[in-house]
From TrEMBL:
It comes from Sinomonas terrae. This is MmgE/PrpD family protein. Belongs to the PrpD family. InterPro entries: MmgE/PrpD_sf, MmgE/PrpD_sf_1, MmgE/PrpD_sf_2, MmgE_PrpD, MmgE_PrpD_C, MmgE_PrpD_N. It comes from the Bacteria. The lineage of its organism: Bacteria, Bacillati, Actinomycetota, Actinomycetes, Micrococcales. Residues 21-265 form the MmgE/PrpD N-terminal domain.
Amino acid sequence: MVELHKVRVYRSEENLPREGQLAYRIARVAADPVEVAPEVAEMVVNRIIDNAAVAIASLNRAPIVSARAQALAHPASTGGRGALVYGIGNRVSPEWAAWANGVAVRELDYHDTFLAAEYSHPGDNIPPILAVAQHVGSTGRDLVRGIATGYEIQVDLVKAISLHKHKIDHVAHLGPSAAAGIGTLLGLDVETIFQAVGQALHTTTATRQSRKGEISTWKAHAPAFAGKMAVEAVDRAMRGQTSPVPIYEGEDGVIAWLLDGPDAAYEVPLPVEGEAKRAILDTYTKEHSAEYQAQAWIDLARRLHRERPEATDPANVAHILIRTSHHTHHVIGSGANDPQKYDPTASRETLDHSIPYIFAVALQDGIWHHVDSYARERAARPDTVALWHKVTTEEDPEWTRRYHSLDIAEKAFGGSVVITMNDGTVIEDEIAVADAHPLGARPFGREQYIQKFRALASEAVAPEEIERFLDTVQRLPELRAGELDALNIIAKDGVIDLASAPKGLF
């Protein structure tokens, strides 16, 4: 059972009591000692496997090399044992482990997602919560509870409050959710979590320019920064330091000046006291390394590659029109009005936010690969560029309605495609959700998460280390205090060259 918490802006003289503030209500959910349902614990394990898979596949990509080098300059702090960095066995201060591992998880745009009023990758909660758990020697049960809270709060905020409409980056929901998850992990009181949530929000609001135009490497760093800020916010709150109040509802607060303004009103669905935190079950992962709205389009393009191979040759094609939701059209489609989305020299981060590019390559290749599909030579292939430049998108009101539907059975992230051939033939098809979606053709279960991990870890991790990790993570709820270090994965000798990392200040 959920309770719709009503949120609006209050003038200072109205003096909104803490009990009525959204940050306080979030803190109460986090402090509720309710047990985690078995199916939620099962999904937590799946998502830890998923995060590990995509992080290991990123170990030698430039943002990870840089973030790892920064983390290694900050050894374990005195308050605990420190936390571990993916790929190596070094202990660092937990906020820096959250930073390095958060960048590794986010870099390939390849882990889980939840889309509603706002967009999110709720798996970004795991690195900071896991880092603190390793640092303080938590149990597997503690970690499961903390992650369940992180997912719950982020999903609930995403269902109710749009950030992108006001060009605020989606990690503004991640800072509070990660702080709340850490509060649950540590068993903190409501007041402390309340202050941590407020500080985490205050320090993680930023513009969406990180996902506009020529997208930079900061895209991978943004959620890691939010996770790092959440760890630091909890530390300050535990030391008695307070946050701006009310952080959401104040007349100079986030809603009044960054979001819908002084007349704003929201209803945030939050579980009532004693209600299990189940929001992770509403989320879904990616089979392909690309923006989530691209998942279904890759699957449709692969199907058309098999069924209509004539459409893969630009010499045969006059135009390809993709009709889809407002978000897909305006953020990763031609409606974004970003010329970079059609530029063969664009960055990988830009190409994975270009439906015209992704659809063209998947249509021609019939597959999608997290490295090869973005290779410079692949993007520059003349026949690909010719086909790619014939792809445009437009918003279809029905697909927009389904995108925003609260009915999980009709919520959709796809659309329809019309391929007009030079001979006048018209090919039409559509897809509502990705094949890996819970309602898709091949829903992901534990077997698929493990397959994804094995495929992405096979080159960088020894077989025995792969088996050790998979055995350990599937026993997560049973792990005792201090055993969470075993959730780290060590790369094979020679995979990581720490000496080659770029130099900075630290």
